[in-house]
Write a structure and sequence with these properties.
Belongs to the TRAFAC class TrmE-Era-EngA-EngB-Septin-like GTPase superfamily. AIG1/Toc34/Toc159-like paraseptin GTPase family. IAN subfamily. With 217 residues, the chain is α/β, with parallel strands linked by helices. 36% of the residues lie in helices and 22% in strands. Strands 1, 2, 3, 4, 5, 6 and 7 form a 7-stranded mixed beta sheet that branches.
Length: 217
């Protein structure tokens, strides 16, 4: 928060390779800051911070209109096709401390493809890495962002039915983070509509946390 009428929200993206992290980051920023493409290998090799333009009058707080700016930290996917777990962890740890050490992190988004089940050792390792990076309070500052959510509708599922039939790994994770999740749809919506809907849900979660942040040293 730089003044009473402006709020800066800090977000970090985590997820497995080709989960749609960088694409989701671009939607949040309303830009193309992060390289994003289909690839048989990991595309993101380094942490990168992107900043959005100012969103005037996005919300009200204390009877005043608030101008919002989003800062998003994109991180290498894990498991990574080239980098070791130790390298990814060190890269992300340094980036969190550098960018959010003082201002703090409002929310970590675990990006997960809706059309790929979350299960197995790779998923467990990713969640463990997030826990280690964010510390003991990670559950209060983490939400799942489901990309490719249009695949759910194409398969004839509602969001509730999809979550009801999800893997035990996903259900356990959702319950541990107070069932904080967001669905990102591409079909039938403009990029701006997607962005506003996702940001509104993110702000609901941050408000539930009373705008508290995680800090890093």
């Amino acid at each position: 928060m730089t003044d009473s009428n402006k709020m800066i929200i800090n977000l970090a993206l985590f997820g497995m390779t080709q989960s749609g992290k960088s694409s989701a980051g671009n939607i949040l920023l309303g830009s193309t800051d992060f390289p994003s493409s289909f690839s048989p290998c990991s595309v993101t090799n380094d942490c990168c911070l992107g900043r959005s333009c100012h969103l005037c009058g996005f919300m009200r707080r204390g009877g005043q209109e608030i101008t919002l700016q989003i800062q998003v930290l994109d991180t290498p996917g894990y498991p990574h096709s080239r980098l070791t777990k130790k390298h990814v962890e060190q890269e992300v740890k340094e980036a969190l401390a550098h960018h959010f050490g003082q201002e703090g992190l409002h929310l970590a988004l675990l990006v997960q493809r809706a059309d790929v089940p979350l299960c197995g050792q790779e998923a467990s390792s990713l969640v463990q890495m997030i826990q280690e990076l964010l510390g003991h309070a990670w559950k209060n500052y983490t939400a799942i962002l489901f990309t490719h959510a249009e695949k759910i509708e194409e398969a004839g599922f509602s969001e509730d039915k999809y979550l009801h039939e999800a893997s035990d790994t996903l259900l356990t994770l959702l319950n541990s983070i107070q069932r904080r999740y967001i669905f990102q749809y591409k079909k039938g919506n403009s990029l701006n509509e997607q962005r506003i809907k996702i940001l509104e849900r993110i702000m609901e979660i941050i408000k539930e946390n009373c705008y508290q942040v995680l800090t890093f040293k």
